[in-house]
Amino acid sequence: MTPKIITTLKTYTRDEFSADLFAGVTVALVALPLSIAIAIASGAVPAVGFVTAIVAGFLISALGGSRVQIGGPTGAFIVVVAGVITTHGYGGLVTATFLAGIILIIAGLLRAGQLVRHVPEAVINGFTIGIGVIIGTSQLPDFFGFTGAFPADFLEKIPALFAALPQLNPASLMTGVVTVVLIILLRRAFPRLPGLIVAVALTSAIVAFFDLPVETIRSRFGELPRSLPAPHLPEMSFATLRELLPSALVIAFLAGVESLLSAMVADRMIGGKHRSNAELMAQGWANIGSSLFGGLPATGAIARTATNVRAGGKTPVAGIVHALTLLAIMMLAAPLAGYLALPALSGLLLLTAWNMSEPHRWGEYARGRRSDLVLLLVTLILTVVTDLTVAIGTGIALGLAMRLSRRGVDDPEWTPRDK
C-alpha cells in the first residue's frame, strides 16, 4: 500500500517535472470551473468546491496508488450530496464525509480494492446514466434563467420546469448555449488546452462587459474567499453518527468505485498498474481532510485524470501542482472567479452530464445480453425516481442473483471508458 509518489520520486527527472508542471497547471484550469459548478449544483456555496479540489486533490495525489490520478469533487456526488444537505444540513454532510473517509481507510486496510471488479458493469452504467439525467435537469433553471425554487423530486421538477417557460431569460440561454458550443469546438481544435475555463471565462466576460441581465457567482453568493478556512472537527455525537451512517456508506461506495474505475482508465492510457488498496486509503484520507476544512466528498475524477494524461502528466507531482495552482488562484484571483456566469457553469455541467451517460455506448447496451439491459434500466430508473441507496442496493443484489443463475457462463471482460 505504498503511495506511488514514493516510488516515482526515486528516479524523478527534470524533464518529468517540466511535464508534470505543465499538466498540473492545465488540469487546475479545467478543475476550477468544474469544482465551483459541482458545489453549486450540490446545493452548497461555490467556495467549498474550491476547498475540496485543493485539499482532497493534494492528498489523493500525495498518498494515492496511481501515477496520474487527479482527485476532487465530481458529478457523481451531486445527487447524494444534495440529498444529505436537504435532509441533514451542510454540517451533516461534513460529518458524513468524515465518516466515509474512515470507512474507506478501513476498506483499504482490509484490502478491499479488488472488490470493485465484482460490481456488475450494468449497475455502474445504469446509475451513471441516472446521475447524468438528474444533473442535467438540475441545471436547466440556471441555463434558462428561471427564478424561484424548483422541487428536488425529478417527477415533480419536470412539470415545474415546463410551467416556468414563460420566464425564460434569452441572455441566460444564449450564454449557456455559446459556452457549450465553445467547449466542444475548443476540445476538438485544441484537445491539450483547458478549453473549459477559456469558454466559461469568455462568455462570462461578455456578460460583464455588456452588463447583461445574467446571474453570476458574485451576484448570488457574494465574494469568494481568498484563503482556506481553519480546520475543525465536525459534530461527532453518537446520535448524529448513527443517523448519518447510511449516507456515509453511500459516499464511501461512490468514492471507492469511481476512484478505482478512474485509476483503471488511467492504467489503460499510460500502460501502467495502480495500487488499488493504496488508492482506497488515499480516498479515505482525502475525504477526512476535505471534511476538516468544511469541504465536499471527493474521489478520483475520470475526466480530469484523462486531461492530466493528455497534457503530459507523468507522476503524482502533476496532481500536487494542480492543487497548489488552485490554492494560488484562490489567494490571488478569487474576486475574478466571482464574475463567472451561472448559465455558463450550467452549460458546462449539462455537457458533463451528457458525457457521463456515454451516448456512444447506448447501441452497445441495446445489443448486449438482455438481462444486463434490464439490470441497467432498473438501476437507472431507481436512481432517477428514488435515490442512490435504493438503486445501488437493488442493482447489486439483482446483479449478483443474475450472476449466480448463470454460473458456468463466463462474463465478458470489461474496462470502464473515459467519461
UniProtKB/TrEMBL annotation:
Keyword terms: Membrane, Transmembrane, Transmembrane helix
Pfam families: Sulfate_transp (PF00916)
Domain of life: Bacteria
Protein's membrane topology: Multi-pass membrane protein
Assigned GO CC terms: membrane
Positions of the SLC26A/SulP transporter domain: 17-379
InterPro entries per record: SLC26A/SulP_dom (IPR011547), SLC26A/SulP_fam (IPR001902)
Residues passing through the membrane, by range: 21-41, 47-63, 70-87, 93-110, 122-140, 160-186, 193-210, 244-266, 320-353, 373-398
GO biological process, one term: transmembrane transport
Species for this entry: Celeribacter halophilus
Keyword set includes Transmembrane helix: yes
Principal place of residence: membrane
Protein name in the entry: Sulfate permease, SulP family
Subcellular location: Membrane
